[in-house]
């Protein structure tokens, strides 16, 4: 846009110049025209240099504008990523709490008081899981599924009859996803 | 800087111009100088307009640069604030878990199995509190402290002998801070 404008102006100046030289030449002859021309040339040089400077300034402006746009886009993406996984650090620290809950809830009992305490713990466990789910945390399914190295970590391999090969036959420790990110793979036993 | 340069150039042009007019005037008289002057004037007008355009472009560049700087600063502050309280939403959802833990752990028992289960729960509770503390969560102190409406919410007022006035005599529900932010005030009974 700016370049087009500059080119048009240069043409206008060039046309003016030619017309003027002819007029003076017709009236006063050769020698005097030299004086006039050198003054005009100086002014024209000045114009050319100003136009070059203008173009450079315009380009500098456009470059800064592009940098600005990029920086804004990058900042937005950084912010969104930070928001998406905002609670990851706390969630990672809460995984041992989930593990211990699962272990503690495995108790078998006939005692009434212990039973009622276990019920209370189950309720707390559920509240905790719900809060985590709301933030985007989901347990990874593994038992009976095909082994997937993206989600499962094989800590033991067996050859058992009655199971298809490459199937998870036992889960030692639950894995968890935060949205699309694995924050801990499931530790599993795989049938070969 | 750019303005200073422009002014110098204008002076140089003006000097050139005067010298030239005189020379032509001496040699060819009045009428012909008019032709030369109007051509020069046109070039000078052009120069003045280019210089004005240059100055405007320079100012536009400086304004954009200032906008860029502001936008960058704002983005950094937004990001830092988002990071500082990043886990607040999850933490708020975990407060009922903490409340229920405190209630459940208040059980008194002689049964060995219940005792061992309670010990397990205490361990889980401590792990949970440690994870929250690492993220910047602290319980608000209230019992025996002077009532402070910034941290305490008075749900009951009493007049008891043996206590100073405006002192928290009982805490009904724990309050919590996330760094410098109260995410839940402590619910308390105050002595008037």
From TrEMBL, chains A, B:
GO biological process: protein folding
Coiled coil: 33-74
Superkingdom to which the source organism belongs: Bacteria
Main localization category: cytoplasm
Gene3D superfamilies attached to this UniProt entry: 3.90.20.20, Head domain of nucleotide exchange factor GrpE (2.30.22.10)
Region (Disordered): 1-23
GO MF: adenyl-nucleotide exchange factor activity; protein homodimerization activity; protein-folding chaperone binding; unfolded protein binding
Keyword field: Chaperone, Coiled coil, Cytoplasm, Stress response
Subcellular location: Cytoplasm
Pfam families in the cross-refs: GrpE (PF01025)
GO cellular component: cytoplasm
Listed InterPro entries: GrpE, GrpE_CC, GrpE_head
NCBIfam families: PRK14140.1, PRK14150.1
Protein family (similarity comment): Belongs to the GrpE family.
Its job: Participates actively in the response to hyperosmotic and heat shock by preventing the aggregation of stress-denatured proteins, in association with DnaK and GrpE. It is the nucleotide exchange factor for DnaK and may function as a thermosensor. Unfolded proteins bind initially to DnaJ; upon interaction with the DnaJ-bound protein, DnaK hydrolyzes its bound ATP, resulting in the formation of a stable complex. GrpE releases ADP from DnaK; ATP binding to DnaK triggers the release of the substrate protein, thus completing the reaction cycle.
Subunit-level organization: Homodimer.
Name of the protein this chain belongs to: Protein GrpE
Native organism: Bacillus yapensis
Gene symbol of the encoding locus: grpE
């Amino acid at each position: 846009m700016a370049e087009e404008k500059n080119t048009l102006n240069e043409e206008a100046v060039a046309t003016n110049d030619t017309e003027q030289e002819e007029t003076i030449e017709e009236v006063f002859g050769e020698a005097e025209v030299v004086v006039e021309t050198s003054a005009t040339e100086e002014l024209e040089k000045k114009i050319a240099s100003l136009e070059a400077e203008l173009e450079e300034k315009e380009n500098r402006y456009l470059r800064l504008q592009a940098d600005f746009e990029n920086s804004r886009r990058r900042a937005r993406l950084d912010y969104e990523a930070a928001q998406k996984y905002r609670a990851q650090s706390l969630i990672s620290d809460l995984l041992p709490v989930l593990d211990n809950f699962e272990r503690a809830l495995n108790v078998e009992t006939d005692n009434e008081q212990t039973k009622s305490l276990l019920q209370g713990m189950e309720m707390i466990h559920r509240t905790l899981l719900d809060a985590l789910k709301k933030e985007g945390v989901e347990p990874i399914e593994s038992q009976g599924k095909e082994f997937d190295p993206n989600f499962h970590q094989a800590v033991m391999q067996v050859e058992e009859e009655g199971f298809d090969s490459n199937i998870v036959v036992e889960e030692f420790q639950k894995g968890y996803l935060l949205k699309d990110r694995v924050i801990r793979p499931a530790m599993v036993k795989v049938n070969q």
